Amino acid sequence: RPDSDWWKSAVVYQVYPRSFADSNGDGIGDLRGIIEHLDHIQLLGIDVVWLSPVYRSPQDDNGYDISDYQDVDPVFGTLADLDELVTGIHLRGMRIILDLVVNHTSDEHAWFQDSRTSRTSAHADWYVWRDPRPGTTGGTPGAEPNNWGAFFGGSAWEWEPARGQYYLHLFSKKQPDLNWDNDVVRAAVYGMMTSWLDRGVDGFRMDVINFISKDPGFPDGAVLANGYGDGTPFFSYGPHIHDYLAEMKSTVFDTRPTTVFTVGEMPTVTPEQAARFTDARTGQLNMVFQFEHVDLDHDGVKWNHRPATVLDLKRSFGRWQEALAEHGWNSLYWSNHDQPRVVSRWGNDREYWYESATALATVLHLHRGTPYVYQGEELGMTNGTFATLDEFRDIESLNYYDVATNTLGLAPDDVLTGMRRISRDNARLPVHWDGGAHAGFTTGEPWMPVHSNHTWLNAAAQVGDPNSVYTFYRRLIGLRHSSRIVVDGTFTMLLADHPTVYAFIRESIDGRLLVVANLSDEPASVELDELDGAELLLANHARTPAGRFDPWDARVYRLP
Ligand code: ISL
Ligand code: CA
């Protein structure tokens, strides 16, 4: 195996700095807090730490709105702290990747501040500016260049009187989209990326990177329930997306002496597109984050819940395993800072908390691909409780509440029910380090209250306990590192039509592994010839007879 493929055997741990650990008592997690807890990450067996944004930012979207790509926001610390974090991670034999947010900047970035002043400013063409619709008066309702809605509510266009034009913002109006069709913009981004690699970082997680190339016609989209048009067909796989990423690869990645880790976050990406992005011969990135499985439990609008079954999950993952079997590579994730907690979403965070957290982990980690662990997932952290609206912090959730109750006329209680289930805030509660005040996250007042279950669900209780969720994750990660089958093996789904038992075989020249998990609150019995003579390697339950599975029973066998 060439060393350039090291990312195939890696496990990534995502740190969302604001919620990880606070070192100075201001209630907000910071870089020194991460430095203090590196042993927790190393002991888990992690290879790569992905750091969500710590750049200078007005924090409109918790750092995904960047006003200076070359500096650290004072709320998180200093550049010297970041250097120390990079060194600390490297000293432990791990690597670090930064979040690259270059579809948009903050409206407070110097580039945008200049761009908005006039049509002749130095940065005039750095953002996506368009005139009002012909025959309308700019700044009045309906004058927007097209009907696209922004992901965080309202129109995707904001009027700028100084230019007499609108700028595009696919997210909040404080996140104007960069104009990637401008060579100078692309060169500035590549230069910035190179400077971070020179500073010692090992790669990038690229925020909504499939959105950077827009259809120049900016056509209206099909009208959605919120009254706005759906622009995604016109920017999620735009005309130059492969060209721009290929240029980034040849300019930034291919000129480095060692392999740069690259993962593109790509909402709406299809298996066929993902194969094109990640094909080692002709693609541009190591892997992408796809959204199919995390979109299964809603009707197209994330707040509108519809139940998803184990069969839905099996079919979705199975399709992706197949599509990227020959060429390309999968990313495997249940959780991140935008998704609710997996044990609450797909598991049972009450009666079968330990069992379901570990069963879901087993299934995910043993697919073919690179697994991601989101901070606190290794402890089985659960969704928040959110009694009232004022406990939510996330701009997406708060904007949605406003639109849903005022414009769409939905009942506040129903809106809150949807938010409790799927809001990004579920993932952003402070990490539980111990059972003491504020879970050991801060000595001050946390920016978001800690969950009451931290008294028993915390790192101090789990790290040395052989029967904890943390220790189980450690074993799973250890299995990947000690078995080439987990990294290289082919994937074959078994019992494809069984409603609750998730079973598959991984096979390579090094042997065969069988993974079987009952993802349900009910016991299950299955006929699997492969179980005869199979040697149990890892399990989350005391043994029951071979073909019988207790609720959330998960087992990994080596086959003869
Ligand atoms: O959570 C979502 C909205 O329902 C997702 O669509 C999310 O907006 C999408 O995954 C893009 O996410 C990334 O870019 C956003 C940022 O808010 C997210 O935190 C980030 O992961 C804009 O930068
Ligand atoms: Ca702090």
UniProtKB/TrEMBL annotation:
Top-level taxonomic group: Bacteria
Ranges of residues in domain Glycosyl hydrolase family 13 catalytic: 14-428
A Pfam family it matches: Alpha-amylase
PANTHER family to which the protein is assigned, alphabetical: ALPHA-AMYLASE FAMILY MEMBER (PTHR10357), NEUTRAL AND BASIC AMINO ACID TRANSPORT PROTEIN RBAT (PTHR10357:SF179)
Family in the record: Belongs to the glycosyl hydrolase 13 family.
Protein name per Swiss-Prot or TrEMBL: Alpha-glucosidase
